């Protein structure tokens, strides 16, 4: 598995969200979409994937390496082996910087299992580590402002991935058996705000069917599964589930929330884009003011009081001992003052 980490050249985080509606690269009429869903509902996931590879250009898989995502990777790998000359389906992985260590360990094992699969990893804009994210946005942002956290850690990186990779269609691991808002999703849907077609090949599968495929094919899986975690996201918002609970009941337990943000309407986050733009403009203006004040004060210190020609002449004829006094400069000696980006030079006019 080949990994490619993408860094955004525009660290503002706003480039992907200049508008809140992208025209889909693939146009499907209502009649065509209805027809695809009627046909795909009758097919097994393997056949849905096979048909999707043929029908949809610029097709990617989005996954956080959950159980269904792992099954998808395996099935796609086998399909590609059947037709090695076909375009491979590459992976988009959003590293929020808050995944479990077990998840990162799983990613490493998946890379070993599928060395030819390419993974595109996207991080929160301008942040490569958790400490950088927290220095910029504060500690436990998911508690103080959950919507903002979802936007920064997931929604914006996702849209950036779509823009950079020119994504037209994506394969997801969503299933109806996961409950909540996923109970009625179709096999094929169009996300008009993100501008992509979403294909959900496993909508009709149960958790047990997914788990059975994992065991039968001896696929690597997250060790947390054996500790009661049926759905794994960020460590701070994921808990084990008990018997009888929905598969995703451990996500954001106790909160009125069932999705992480990437499957919400994009326009829901418009307020955060506007707020970010305002804050960045204020920070930039403050930085300019601070720099101007610093340079001004340092230049005043460097220049000092005006020295009369008489004083200079008197200093030139002074005894050598007077030149040892701090602040008195030897004839012709240059002084350099460095203030970061600003460097000031001058020479004393001593004969």
How would you explain this protein's 3D organization?
This protein is 38% helix and 12% strand. It has ten helices and nine strands. It has helices spanning 30-40, 45-55, 67-82, 101-113, 130-137, 141-144, 146-165, 207-216, 270-303, 309-316, and strands at 2-6, 59-62, 90-94, 118-122, 169-171, 188-191, 196-199, 334-339, 342-347. The strands form two sheets. A seven-stranded mixed beta sheet has the order 1-4-3-2-5-7-6. Strands 8-9 form a two-stranded antiparallel sheet. Helix 3 packs across helix 8 (207-216). The radius of gyration is 30 Å and the shape is globular. Mean pLDDT is 80; it is low at 319-351.
Give a brief rundown of this model.
With 351 residues, this protein is α/β, with parallel strands linked by helices.
């Amino acid at each position: 598995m080949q990994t490619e980490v993408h860094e955004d050249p525009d660290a503002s985080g706003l480039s992907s969200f200049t508008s809140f509606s992208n025209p889909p690269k693939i146009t499907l009429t209502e009649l065509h979409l209805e027809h695809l869903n009627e046909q795909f509902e009758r097919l097994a996931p393997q056949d849905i994937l096979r048909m999707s590879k043929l029908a949809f250009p610029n097709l990617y898989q989005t996954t956080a390496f959950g159980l269904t995502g792992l099954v998808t990777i395996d099935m796609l790998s086998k399909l590609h082996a059947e037709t090695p000359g076909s375009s491979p389906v590459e992976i988009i992985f959003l590293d929020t910087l808050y995944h479990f260590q077990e998840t990162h360990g799983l990613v490493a094992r998946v890379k070993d299992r599928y060395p030819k699969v390419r993974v595109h990893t996207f991080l929160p804009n301008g942040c490569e580590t958790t400490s950088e994210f927290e220095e910029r946005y504060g500690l436990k942002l998911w508690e103080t402002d959950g919507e903002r956290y979802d936007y920064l850690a997931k929604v914006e990186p996702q849209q950036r991935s779509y823009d950079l990779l020119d994504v037209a269609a994506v394969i997801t691991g969503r299933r109806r058996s996961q409950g909540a808002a996923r109970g009625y999703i179709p096999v094929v849907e169009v996300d008009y705000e993100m501008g992509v077609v979403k294909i959900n090949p496993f909508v009709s599968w149960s958790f047990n069917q997914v788990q059975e495929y994992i065991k039968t094919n001896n696929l690597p899986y997250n060790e947390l599964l054996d500790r009661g975690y049926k759905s794994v996201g960020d460590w701070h918002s994921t808990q084990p589930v008990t018997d009888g609970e929905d598969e995703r009941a451990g996500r954001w337990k106790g909160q009125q929330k069932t999705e992480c943000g990437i499957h919400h309407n994009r326009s829901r986050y418009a307020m955060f884009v506007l707020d970010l733009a305002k804050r960045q403009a204020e920070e930039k203006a403050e930085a300019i003011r601070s720099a101007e004040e610093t340079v001004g004060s340092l230049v005043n210190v460097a220049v000092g009081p005006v020295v009369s020609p008489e004083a200079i002449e008197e200093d030139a004829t002074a005894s050598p001992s007077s030149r040892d006094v701090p602040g008195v400069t030897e004839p012709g000696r240059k002084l350099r003052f460095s203030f970061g980006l600003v460097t000031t030079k001058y020479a004393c006019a001593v004969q």
